[in-house]
Amino acid sequence: MRPDLCLRNAGRRYGLRGPWVLRGVDLAVAPGRLVRVEGANGSGKSTLLRLLAGIDAPSEGRVTGRPRTAYVPERFPPALPFTAAGYLTHLGTVHGLPRAAAARAAGEWLERLGAAAYAETPMARLSKGSSQKVAVAQALLAEPELLVLDEAWTGLDTEARAELERAVAERTAAGGSVVFVDHDPSRLAGLPDATYAVRGTGLVESASPEPGPSGPQVTADVQGPPDGRLPDDVRRMVTTADETAPGSYRLTVPAPHSDILLRTLLTARPPWHVVSVSPQATASGRQG
Ligand SMILES: Nc1ncnc2c1ncn2[C@@H]1O[C@H](COP(=O)(O)OP(=O)(O)OP(=O)(O)O)[C@@H](O)[C@H]1O
Asked: Where is the segment annotated Disordered (predicted)?
């Protein structure tokens, strides 16, 4: 099992005598966790994310348990001498993918994010939104163990925003961790395992998530082999799982996770049968 990524008594300031932006921060991000970071403008959210992403080192304290990490920065440098596909393929090889696999992953992510038409466009000529899609694709393509997203939804169109939400669900379902900052309080609402606010130079954890799901839920009746055990990644993403008969389950899942839930079941070996799917108008308490 991969260790938690930990900040231990971490502090960060800019310059030798600059004021401390963060100090004495202890934070553990476990595999499979979705973590939201909040805070006022200029409070130090990006500073914290850069420490978590390994882009900056703490001025004091330590970082331990570094996983394979990818990062979408708040500002992405668009004026690079590459086409979108060329840049992503190059980065894929930097992440350790063979060139053909990197090119394939680049194409798949541009397609998923609705930017396939710009694959051969030089980065410097991309619109802000398309450039942001490339920024998101570069982070997702190597299936990182830790994904750090600094306002990554900003500038994306509606479909790409939804796709990024799905990608976050996929990462956590696969056991990856995701840490994100977003100005929209409804972003991934009800899903984070923990929310921290930067206050002063420290981190304050918000009250634990509600015991019941707070966002819209979807119910799915699914059937596996008679002795079928729900796949672990399905167990991790559902709110409730009631076994209604041997190998049959009624699952509830936060609506943004429903696509990935169904995709996971349908592509399981052997595949599961999805009997019915229906939205749940109101969230009930957590059961099971
Ligand atoms: N590279 C840098 N050099 C000097 N000071 C910096 C640097 N980056 C950030 N700061 C300062 O550190 C403080 C925290 O900035 P940071 O960008 O981490 O905050 P933030 O919460 O992400 O802000 P925003 O919500 O505006 O994105 C600010 O006072 C900022 O001016």
From this structure: 204-230
